[in-house]
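Final report, closing paragraph on structural work. Over the funding period we assembled a curated collection of sequence-structure pairs, and we close with a single example.
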Amino acid sequence: MKFAVFTFNGIEPCEMISAVDILRRAKVDVDMISLTNAIMINGAHGFTFRADITWEDFNGNDYDAFVVPGGPGTFSVVAEHEILHEELKRAKERGVWICAVCAAPMILARCGLLDNLSCTSWPGVEDEIISAADNVTYKTDNVVVEIEAKIITSRALGTSVEWALEMVRHIVSAEVSDNIRDSVCFTY
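Its predicted structure, as stored:
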């Protein structure tokens, strides 16, 4: 099992780190993919970190799941990355799980990936999701899982550990998710 976690300038660091940390605890192979050709990423709030792979070396066919964190950069870097949008659509056609948090579900809506589904997001993009996706049901739950569609959405930084645990629950196993939940004392 292999996950691609997309990274970009302006990313919300805790959303990315929560996903990568929980997935690696689940013994999942995780690559942090820079959406640019630079390996160093300038996250929001002054965080700088190193991606594993640059966009030029990324091959979407190598992954079983795509993870799109949010943050201020979602409105520029991710929103304008048309090649990523096409990659997300191809992933959906191949049956790849797609997981998005914070403002990132807005990108899924723009790509038509939330049509006729339920989702959640950071409240500031709710109206755009409702307007961009056909017949979407917007929820205020911490995490919304659409099992048949293989899409997991979540609200924001405060729900990112729960979001990552739900990825593990539905893509790896409930037992592994529960073991990690207990080991990190997650009590929600």
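Strands lie at 2-7, 29-34, 40-42, 48-50, 65-68, 97-101, 118-119, 137-138, 143-146, 151-154. The chain is about 35% helix and 20% strand. We thank the funder for supporting this effort.
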